[in-house]
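Repro:
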Amino acid sequence: MPEFDSIAPVGVYGTDDLACRALLHGRYPVHAMAFHPRLPLLAVGTGGYDGGYFFEGELLLLDLETGAATSLIEHELGRQVLGLERLNEQELRVLMAAPDDWQDKDAWSEGHVAVVHRPDWRAVPPRSITGYDLAGPRVTAPRPDGREDARRAVSGLSTDWDPSRNCPTAGS
């Protein structure tokens, strides 16, 4: 696994009291998140380039009630997840980098998009999303750096916000 020097945790805070509800420490930088429309679940897409050939990463499902995180992609290297969008209660659109850049000059600007369907996202077992689930058409997938936009958005939430307030410890 590659070493990343600036992997940031994901903290989920309540809007009523700004208290930390769940904390996730992933193995890769976070690129995308999508809340379930009805259940207390957050899909988190992570990943990075390993420096050789592969775009590794995870699709994590964070249970906001228990703080438990489940890694969903079956393959041991996973896939770099670049974008997530909830289409409805059962479908999640996933934008991924190509699996690798071996003989693929467009791997840095294109990726694959797939819609993963699960009848009950609470019951999704670890490592159960397969290559078949993630098969989808090739699309343009630029890699913009959104860190400054994220900093501005978080700092504008509230002057009372404290990133470490009452945060439980949780792992991925």
